[in-house]
Amino acid sequence: MNPVLEAIFGNRTAACVLLFLQCYGEGHALRMAKTFGFGLNMTQRQLKRLEEDGVLVSRLVGNIRLFSFSERNPSVRNLRQFLEAELKLLPDDQVQQFFRQRQRPRLTGKLLVSHG
User: Fold this and answer.
1) Fewer beta carbons within 10 angstroms: which end of the chain, N or C?
2) How far apart are CA 116 and CA 101, in angstroms?
3) Which helix (H) or strand (E) is 52 found in, with range?
4) pLDDT at 34
5) pLDDT tens for each residue of the chain, 116 residues long
6) How far separated are the first and last CA of the chain, in Å rounded?
7) Is residue 114 part of a domain?
8) Which long-range contacts (CB under 8 A, 24 or more apart) does 45-51 make?
9) Smallest Cα–Cα separation from 103: which of 47, 50, 28?
10) Are 59 and 66 in contact (CB under 8 A)?
């Protein structure tokens, strides 16, 4: 991950959480922690801090707390533009590893197609 982003956001976890949410739109702490290899508690702390500061909002879906960007905060719109530009600068290997994951389960009965 870009060390400049880590410096801007205070740490690697915060930078990765924000990039994850910019890429996928929403997410929960366990998914983010597993994606980047972070501890769950560290990820939850960053999400809570960002929510308390008005950057993120959350909602419960069943027993899972989903986080997304706060659309009411005008500064968040600028932040999202910045994050989108930063996502485009990431090396291909990082994009493939962290930002191209399947988000929904495969449809029942759908065949796997090999592209190789």
Assistant:
1) C
2) 19
3) helix 40-52
4) 94
5) 778 889 999 999 999 999 999 999 999 999 999 999 999 999 999 999 999 999 999 999 999 999 999 999 999 999 999 999 999 888 888 878 777 765 555 455 655 444 44
6) 29
7) no
8) 46/11, 46/13, 46/14, 46/17, 47/17, 49/14, 50/14, 50/17, 50/18
9) 28
10) yes
CA distance 109 to 23: 28
User: What is the domain count for the chain?
Assistant: 1
Does residue 107 fall inside a structural domain? no
Q: How many residues does the chain have?
A: 116
**Tell me, what's the pLDDT at 31?**
94
Q: What is the domain range of residue 82?
A: 3-98
